[in-house]
Design goal:
Layout lengths: L2 E2 L5 E2 L24 H13 L2 H13 L2 E7 L2 E6 L7 E6 L5 H12 L2 H8 L7 H7 L12 E4 L9 H16 L2 H6 L4 H11 L19 E2 L2 E2 L28 H5 L11 H5 L6 E2 L2 E2 H15 L3
Antiparallel strand pairs: 1-2, 3-4, 4-5, 5-6, 7-8, 9-10
């Protein structure tokens, strides 16, 4: 495939030197990146890169020209074998968040029980991107969010060597989504430890009385915390309620009153069910359905 030099002239690029033991991406044709987070990263790449160099970058990634990739907070370093004997050095920088910013992010994630549970189970919930956005700290870089450099003489930017590393990086994210967070400055083990230590957010606690004014049940460590529920009732010993055993413990009027219930996310069903192995243009079908569910809920008044 022809390429352009700095003056705009077309030329036939030299064939790269074959590498023994290089990193081969699994995808042999079409797009690279299978999970929603790696596709989000690829979307950024494909918006900023020349299509010709992207094609050459994919070929490099598939033929194993990328020799080494290391991910550290804020910086990816790699070596790519081109047509010259000496491999090229590639660096890709991103803003790594500091401890205070990660403390705020961890608190937001811990406040959402479903996201916290999924992360502790090793999953990356799609809604995590919204949590980062609410904190004003984007999870994925925008079109100008990557500081990239390569030691090759190619004036094009990003060059095919950078493109190859970005594709290898995207497939690494497929295998371990926590690498996305590690690049932003938070290692997997440190994040999971922080989520376990944080527990439910303190902001979700309520007074120790239920909506009817009765005391909320207490455990061995005092009143239970968490959002109030219509079914929070005092549970006296059985011997104390034998005379009224068949009487309802909760007033039917309270069961009809739904004002105290938490709002239900419009995509709750999508979160609860096992995701089908269906994709549209390499994008998981659930990632396409979620915004549609939310739009329908907004049009229906929530």
């Amino acid at each position: 495939m022809s390429e352009r030099d700095a003056k705009g002239w077309f030329f036939e690029p030299a064939r790269p030197i074959r590498v023994e033991g290089g990193i081969h991406v699994r995808s042999r044709r079409g797009s690279i990146g299978e999970r929603w987070w790696s596709r989000r990263f690829i979307d950024v790449l494909e918006r900023v890169c020349d299509k010709g160099r992207l094609s050459r970058g994919r070929a490099y990634a598939r033929s194993g020209q990328v020799m080494h990739v290391d991910i550290a907070p804020g910086l990816v370093t790699a070596r790519v074998q081109g047509s010259r004997p000496e491999p090229y050095d590639v660096t890709i920088g991103i803003t790594a968040y500091d401890s205070e910013q990660w403390r705020a992010l961890t608190g937001r994630l811990a406040a959402r029980a479903l996201y916290r549970a999924k992360l502790l189970a090793g999953e990356m919930p799609p809604e995590i991107e919204e949590v980062f956005g609410e904190a004003g700290l984007p999870l994925f870089p925008g079109e100008r969010g990557l500081d990239m450099a390569c030691s090759c003489p190619d004036w094009g930017f990003p060059c095919k060597h950078l493109s190859a590393v970005l594709y290898v990086l995207a497939e690494s994210f497929d295998d371990d989504p926590f690498l996305v967070l590690a690049w932003r400055g938070m290692a997997k083990d440190a994040l999971l430890d922080a989520l376990r230590a944080a527990g439910p957010a303190e902001s979700s606690t309520v007074p120790s009385t239920g909506p009817s004014g009765h005391e909320r049940p207490e455990g061995p460590e005092g009143p239970k915390s968490g959002p109030a529920s219509l079914l929070d009732v005092t549970d006296p010993p059985f011997a104390d309620r034998m005379d009224a055993f068949y009487e309802p413990a909760v007033s039917p009027a309270r069961l009809r009153d739904r004002s105290g219930l938490p709002s239900t996310p419009p995509d709750l069903l999508l979160r609860a069910l096992e995701p089908p192995a269906v994709k549209a243009r390499h994008i998981p079908i659930l990632d396409l359905l979620r915004p549609a569910y939310r739009t329908l809920a907004e049009e229906d008044g929530g």
